[in-house]
Design brief:
Elements lengths: L7 H10 L14 H31 L3 H27 L11 H4 L10 H26 L4 H26 L7
Bound molecules: fe (ii) ion (FE2) (2 copies).
Length: about 180
């Protein structure tokens, strides 16, 4: 086995030289700015998801669909957790999380949606979850082997989005299609 692994002493030297960059170590400089942009795009998408699910929570509550409404609220809170995780990672990478409402739709991948009834709302959320799943898989491909910490974070988020999609699919199967 060849000694590919950088010696501990050298790693320590690099760490000392670059203390000002916080968690960003010498081995990971390339593509960091691009990754911050990607994570900010994901953050914008997650913000839209927080709002869409929250809006649907109140709409569903209004039509006495309490079980579905509760699910929407739960998802909204989990999307907010994703926002926080992404923002924290962006800061660790030396970037600035972009919370500006201006341009959030342009930066994000998600849409706000206009579900007219319960069936449409669930369907809309399911589509957006599927978009998020595909997007996060692309982000993982972009990161490759460069940043295991960001990879672990995206995988953790991706797992929740897959759970969301499964839950919504189950809810959808239990409902008759509505056209009102
Ligand atoms: Fe999310
Ligand atoms: Fe989700």
């Amino acid at each position: 086995m060849s000694m590919e692994i950088t010696k501990h002493k050298v790693l320590r030297q690099h760490a000392r030289q670059h203390l000002e960059t916080g968690a960003v170590t010498h081995s990971y400089q390339a593509g960091r700015r691009d990754l911050v942009s990607l994570l900010n795009a994901a953050l914008a998408s997650e913000l839209i998801c927080v709002l869409r699910y929250r809006s649907h929570y109140f709409l569903a509550k209004g039509i006495h669909a309490s079980a579905v409404a509760a699910e929407f609220l739960h998802h909204s809170n989990e999307e907010l957790q994703h926002v926080d995780w992404l923002a924290a990672r962006i800061v660790q990478l030396g970037g600035e999380p972009d919370f500006s409402p201006q341009g959030v739709i342009e930066r994000g991948q998600s849409i706000f949606g206009t579900g007219q009834n319960l069936y449409e709302m669930i369907k809309e959320n399911l589509i957006e979850e599927r978009v998020a799943i595909d997007h996060y898989k692309e982000v993982l491909g972009f990161i490759g082997d460069d940043d295991p910490t960001s990879t672990a974070l995206i995988q953790k988020i991706l797992q929740t989005e897959e759970e969301h999609a499964n839950e919504l699919a189950s809810l959808l199967w239990g409902l008759p299609e509505q056209h009102n």
